[in-house]
Fold this sequence. Notes:
With 232 residues, the chain is α/β, with parallel strands linked by helices.
Amino acid sequence: MKLAIIGDFNSSFRPHVTTNDAIEHSTQSLGLQVEADWVSTDYIIDNFNSIIDTYDGFWIAPGSPYKSMTVALDIIKYARLNDIPTLGTCGGFQHMAIEFARNILNIKDAEHAEYDPYASKLVINPLSCAMAGQTLEIELNDKTSKIFEIFGTEKISEKYYCNFGLNPKYQNELNDKGFKIVGTDDLKEVRILELINHPFFIATLFVPQDNSAQGKPHKLINTFLSTVCGRF
Length: 232
């Protein structure tokens, strides 16, 4: 099976390096055959059709702003509509929320403050408290969710690298339209989104790849890659 990591790889950015490491941890532990390729967003511009024909799953990577936000959103939309397993972490979470806001909530000018800080519809805005480098607790508040099934517990602790998150004013709209809030912080701000009626379409503001280790792969990444390989 082939996995596309959608993002502009930077070897000096820790979450990119740990993404590669985490995939190796899970594939070795589970005995999965997964070929993972980084696919730069500017490459997608002229190769969209070949990319969607080639890959069985998409990991929307940290590290925004992307070179091309538009094509990243196009990939996310395709994956959402065509039941392609998709995991978004950190910046990936942010772009998955924007795609949903634009195409399902019909907020056509939904924006990300990192791209346009003065936009009128900032679906993604600066966090009230910087979280980069912190490990924080998350409450899993939907026991019917895939996330709860994966972790089997009401609280988890995960690491963050981001300074932007979902604007709380849009949380209920996303949730009501099916991009469910399944994990929140102590202020009830969303940290995990999960699309209903999809094999795997999960967005985390945290970076699970930084909580993976050789011999102890991350549960979420295990399940994602197993889904890509057709084991779930």
